[in-house]
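As described in the Methods, two query proteins were run sequentially through the folding procedure within a single session, without resetting any intermediate state between them. The first query and its resulting structure tokens are shown here.
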Amino acid sequence: MSKEVHPSKLFTASCMALIVTAMTFAIRAGILSQLATDFALSDTQLGWVNSMAFLGFPVAMMVLGLAYNYLGAKKLMAIAFIGHLAGLLLTIYAGGFWSLLISTFLIGFANGSVEAACNPLIADMYPNNKTTMLNRFHVWFPGGIVIGALASKFMTDADLGWQMQIGIMLIPTVIYGYLVFFQTFPKSENIETSTSTNIKSLFSPLYIFMILCMTLTATSELGTQQWVGRILQESGASPMIILALGTGLMAIGRQFAGVIIHKLNPIGVLLLSSITATIGIYLLSIATGGMVYLATIIFAMGVCYFWPTMIGFIGEYQPKTGALGMSLMGGAGMFAVSIWNPIIGNWIDSARAEAVAAGVAPENVDLAAGQATLGNMTIFPILLVVAFGILFAMRSKIQKAA
């Protein structure tokens, strides 16, 4: 093992771990229909399975975010590797609803461990370029979703079972595990490592406000993406191509985030993003055929900068919250998505029943249900327009206080 710290190699290891995290989201979205058929699951039950991934994530981020100052990034990454390995293997050999719940929770816990370790690690390694480097790191969430979505589509089209789709994620898992175990990690020097200071800083009104906003940004982005296969399967467009297109554009946008953030600052980026996301989700709720792809492009532009800019905002404007503040921010977002997933699944079931009762043609029932559900989901970015509008109006005071 090298004793010299190589930030570029650690950044690569972090990105590879995030690719695994993203692939779990994409491939799970791609195999939901197969799971529903093989295990006779309703959409509400699928919602509970999905929610375990989003629940495991904040549990890891809250627990490990608190432990970051004591354990360090390397041990947290090791926990992530073990969780991914165990969760993926248990999913492959799942026998039904309850085993899927357990294995999906483990994967979610591993995903949260990656975020809990890597966000503060990157902020610490690049103290003068936090938001830009966090956006570049988070390129690989949409990037990994593109990889997972295309892999899921091609493997499904080739009649390869969902177990094999889960299995391919073991490859990048082993790669990042190797990178983690054979690199030296730096000591924290550029982030606040006093746990008492971290905890006290969490009660800042601005931090609490941003936590609440994070629950909405995460649900706007991930709540929509996770259900794309079920919601848009009858829209006349390929759900996995929609997912790959949208997340591919997000990856490109995040790669060049530095220029945009420099011109608009994080608060301006968040306000513009919320407006665009509202338009995108609304268009998805009414579009069919080729127009779905245009709506997807607008949606992707809207949610592109949400997650990394929210984390970067905390790093820049609430630095005393340290690794704990970043972890709880991400954890709050995922916890919200875990709560909303069963509700979204229930929206689909209810909208489908209403469509049948209204006499909608059988071939159009799923489309009507999906569009109605997306219509409900526009409320999340609409609330963000109001919240970030308030933040934008107060931006001069926030910048002076930082």
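Immediately afterward, the second query was submitted; its sequence and tokens are:
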Amino acid sequence: MKRTASAVWNGSLKEGKGVISSQSGVLSDTAYSFGTRFAEERGTNPEELIAAAHAGCFSMALSAGLGKAGFEPARIRTGASLDLENVEGSWRITAVHLETSARVPKISQSQFEAIAQDAKANCPVSQLLKANITLVAKLED
């Protein structure tokens, strides 16, 4: 399986502008720029897309892990917060914090946390990232 995306950038770092597109068409010439990455301008940025990918990947891995353990989740909600920091003059993703809550009938908090930790460690996006990845996992009523 291969997934593709592309980016086109025009101009200098601070004054330039770019667009990102994805194979599926969900992103189609979606704007990104210095302002969308380092300020609050409208558009997207690579780090936001990585955080979204991580939240989605983790949620699917958690669903798979729960199913493998005999539990069927009614809902899983995951947020991902990514830290982009300037470390010794170089921008780096230094951490990702996942926060998930789920409605899963007939599971204990400790069972849920164990399965969530496994999903965090083994989802493909977690394996790709070398950042410190933390997780808070809560069951919903």
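The longest helix spans residues 46-68. We note this only descriptively and draw no conclusion about the first query from it.
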